[in-house]
Amino acid sequence: MANKGNKKRRQFSLEEKMKVVEAVDSGKRKGDVAKEFGITPSTLSTFLKDRAKFEEKVRKASVGPQRKRMRNALYDDIDKAVFAWFQEIHAKNILVTGSVIRKKALNLANMLGYDNFQASVGWLNRFRDRHGIALNAVCREDGDRLMNGLGIDKVNEWHAGEIIKLIADYSPDDIFNADEAGVFFQLLPQHTLAAKGDHCRGGKKAKQRLTALFCCNASGTEKMRPLIVGRSPSPHCFKNVHSLPCDYRANQWALMTQDLFNEWLMQVDARMKRAERRILLLIDNCSAHNMLPRLERIQVGYLPSNCTAVLQPLNLGIIHTMKMLYRSHLLKQILFKLSGNKDQEKVDIKQAIDMIAAAWWSVKQSTVVKCWQKAGIIPMEFTDSDTEMVAKEPDIAIEKLWHSVAVATCVPNEVNFQDFVTADDNLIISQELLDTEIIQGMVTGKNTGEAGSEDEEEDVSLPEQPKITITEAISSVQKLRQFLSTCAGVPDAVFGQLNGIDEYLMKRVTQSLTDSQIIDFLQAK
């Protein structure tokens, strides 16, 4: 009896508990699952009852999956503040030791008003256990060392080893890359030099920027709907707008955050589940990407740190091409207004979103494929040998357009179109928390992703979208069709697109009339 009473109680990690639950979800009988994992039926019932708790813990990364207990910290707000700081540091591959964490914990505790808190070795060990942290992070590499022997070896090692394993079970159609880009959406040619090299970490210029997330596959057959992050949740120009060519979110920095990226990931994961697909998603390790939710249909692969300039397809010409198309469209608008002696108005967020989305969808499949090939992720023989090269320089038509606008707007001679395109390439794209921002989140409980106010200066000064009736829209299509009939050499594709718009509008008006007639009939009865 004594031996039986002294039998050591077995503890299960969250990872083990989730495996038990997943086995039941797969359709196995509960009795068989209990035998397989060596647990009693009552223990299995407890796991199933508490599944929501530990799944939520791991999903939010508040505890490591190896952890066996879910007890909260005594100083819970200090714990959360230190972990928020650690996430930022870990994303940058900065060396983190136990003494560094303890010192930071004391600083944050002091800012939170705790005078008696002691960041002891015992507290550190419990903190590590709670969050599944192993203190073996490596020092961040200097970006300037990328192309020396160490950088080249790192790239070659990834090409020869890890990437081969990652892509082995996927076709090019199911291998994706996602990355963010910052855009000064109101930038005019004459202000190029002032914007060049600006990181835009906040302040007034945050109102003039957007952050856009793009994602495409290696075969160039699928470009996902862009996610664009602005500062205002309800810009004045969004009034009467119910559909956008992208997903739009907002926070006070107009930056990508962990919450926004994870929300986007979960939506993509749900789409892949509905389509019964499994994909590989390659991303960099910026601070917004470092704590991911549990995903069922997406395998995430991280690109080596500080090597994205040569390994990330979107950075090798795809985003550059999108920006070139966006700025070309902007130049055409400027020239059109100049020719009509109209005042140059600021571009509002709605117009910018429309142009960014149009530019993204206009990036050619051949351009996408070439960038994936340049990254060394898919072989060169994947496409025909006559596939066009990625355009690094603007074509003659764009050069003429740039010259016309540059002369009319007094752009300095030393500024060229490429300067205009790349002026915002150095924008910060993900949120980096300061200690004061971490503490503010602990004290006030405010979400660090809270959006800016609605009445932002650049929005209030711009006109709202006029409400157009469906009758007016149909009439506009008819006028456009009449105009095109007077032009020579109009491509069939243009008429096809116009027919599609006409068909959509007629379907809307027919459905509306049909519904109203049914309602009138029922009311008469």
Automatic annotation (TrEMBL):
InterPro entries: CenT-Element_Derived, DDE_SF_endonuclease_dom, Homeodomain-like_sf, HTH_CenpB_DNA-bd_dom, HTH_Psq
Main location: nucleus
Keywords on record: DNA-binding, Nucleus
Residues in HTH CENPB-type domain copies: 66-137
Listed GO MF terms: DNA binding
Cellular component, GO annotation: nucleus
Subcellular location: Nucleus
Domain HTH psq-type: 3-54
Annotated DNA-binding residue span(s): 30-50
PROSITE patterns to which the protein is assigned, alphabetical: HTH_CENPB, HTH_PSQ
Name this polypeptide is given: Tigger transposable element derived 6
Species: Urocitellus parryii
This protein's encoding gene: TIGD6
